[in-house]
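Thread: adenosine-5'-triphosphate complex, take 2
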Amino acid sequence: MALFYVRRYGGEDEQEEEAEAEDRARVLLERLQQQARARQLQKQREAQPQGREGPGDAGLSPGGEPGQGKGKEKRKRESEEQPSAHRQKKLKTKQQPRSPSEERAGTEEAADGSSPTKKKKANRKKSKVQQERTEADSEEDIKQQENRNNFKNRSNKRKKADEETQGDEKEKKESSEKAEGNQTTEEELPLAASGEEADCPPSSTMIIGDYDAKPVQKVQPFLPQWLAQPKRVQKRIKDNLCPISDVPGIHPRLLKKLQMNGIESFFPVQAEVIPAILQSASNGYLLGRGGYRPKDICVSAPTGSGKTLAFVIPIVQVLLDRVVCHVRALVVLPTKELAQQVSKVFNIYTDGTGLKVALITGQKSFAKEQEVLVQKKVTGYCSLADIVVATPGRLTDHINQTPGFSLAQLRFLIVDEADRMIDDMHQNCLNQIVKAAFQGENDSGFMLFQRTKPGPITAASSCSPQIPLQKLLFSATLTQDPEKLQQLDLFQPRLFTSVYSEKNRDGTEAEQDTNNKYTLPEELSQCYVPCDLNSKPLLLLYFMLKMKFTRVLCFTNSREASHRLFLLVQAFGGVTVAEFSSRLPPNERKRTMKEFDQGKIQLLISTDATARGIDVKGVNYVINYDAPQFIRTYIHRVGRTARAGTAGVAFSLVLRIQERRFLRMLRDAGIRDIQKHPVKGNSLKPLVQQYEAALCKLEKTVKDERAQKRA
Ligand SMILES: Nc1ncnc2c1ncn2[C@@H]1O[C@H](COP(=O)(O)OP(=O)(O)OP(=O)(O)O)[C@@H](O)[C@H]1O
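Output below.
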């Protein structure tokens, strides 16, 4: 716009030209006055003592601008400089060189001598000289202005530095570093910098969004007190055995039974948990201690540490005095095999007591199971079982479809492998059990003792005798996620958990935070073998045939993988091998497990169906043929060996691409003592020829199986 203005009016209108010349003269005068003032100021400052100078003076530009005016003076000078800079800018725009046509017109006018008067000529000459001088001045002014701005920037920095000297040493350093970082930018943009003093925050101000590296505190999950401060249980079994007679309150009958079964001492978890359960039922199974509802109990202890006996003994003891048969204890487990195993232990300790144990897993027909649960009499239905051991699916079927099957008198609800049972799949079943337990009136007829849904204890609620329902949760990998446990609606729970310890540098052991950490049996040795996909079958054969491994439980990640590996090893020959997965009928699975238990099978290739809870004595090795994807799977798989204080070794075949993730998974769970155990390719070479022949056989077998399926 300014350029347009100059072109349109420049040199046409004499009056305007004059006004313009006057304007320029005025501006020039002002500038000269300013320069004079600046020089005066400089002299004044030079006359002042040097002591006021800040440490930043050395950084002045070679232009030698005076640097250390007091704030007041500086502000005054700046207020003077700013408008002049503005005017100067305007002037510079106005004083753009004329266009050649305009210049030509002027020259032509003078040549033909037609109209301009002498005065006008003189004026024009004078204004031209003035214009040239103004242009020269304005250039010089711009330079000066730049210098002033540079000076201002530096004096800002010096001011900051002065402020910082009052602050602590560290802040000063950071701030001056920042100022230095900004210096280049400010010097590159001197005109823009003039107004910056007001915008610039004081050095003590924290700039939000500034990315200074600061240590960020990790957010710790908030745990309820019962989870944060559990009762610690020693995990070293052998060093912490407790003679059975030393545990108070065990019934002599049960002591005898224990001895008869070769149990002279309790394992640490049993020595802690058995008295706790017995104490909570010290008033009999109908009332809690002092008439109050007993606390729920959660137990998280390593695989093979004897958790089963920790609930079997106290439950049998509490129910020894029962008069009428009702379902008083219900044990829920995720698999048929586990339920079978636990019911076996109950059978041992209830034998000869009159207590009856029913196994409900779907292995028998529904009608047969009903027969062991209830009996119809003239007076109504009566229970035939005191203790029911069940899998979730079949249990809910009986709750819904078996007339007379009542949980209204249930005193103990035991959830074994509780972390798995809390999974969505089984959660619904647990809700149904609790609902059935608080159903009240039912087909079983008269109820001597009523049961109300737990709530705040009031005078009214404590008037009539209550049958408390106590929940007992057990697992080697019990979740410590309060939200998940909340789903079980636990009442003032107590947690018993194994001590997680880490070795210090000096060899001593230090207790660690148990959150999200799992403990493994002390006697377990862990190794992993880095390998590639093709060498995995050879490695398994190498372990079995060259290393002479015996009693090996080998895990794969799928039924198909188990089956193929079984066929391959069978085709290779030289190893007594069997497979175990849900693709086999229950009878065959039972038989296989028995043979493996008896030592007739040296290698059992299995899916995770045997990973949890299965107690086979004398498993020497666990081989993770397929690396487990989850830490809990790893813990339960490797826990099939090194049980009850015996030694065991776990090998994991880990593909090289899985290695980092696998190790991180273990490290995150607090497992660090795993050894790398590479096997050289040369060791596998002698097996290759026979292996290739086995592969051909396998191909043929798979084809035959497919044909059989189709037929
Ligand atoms: N006090 C004891 N003395 C000797 N052996 C015992 C004792 N308690 C349990 N055992 C044996 O220890 C083995 C492991 O016990 P159990 O199956 O109860 O372990 P667990 O903690 O439930 O393991 P998992 O978590 O794998 O289910 C069993 O064979 C059992 O007979």
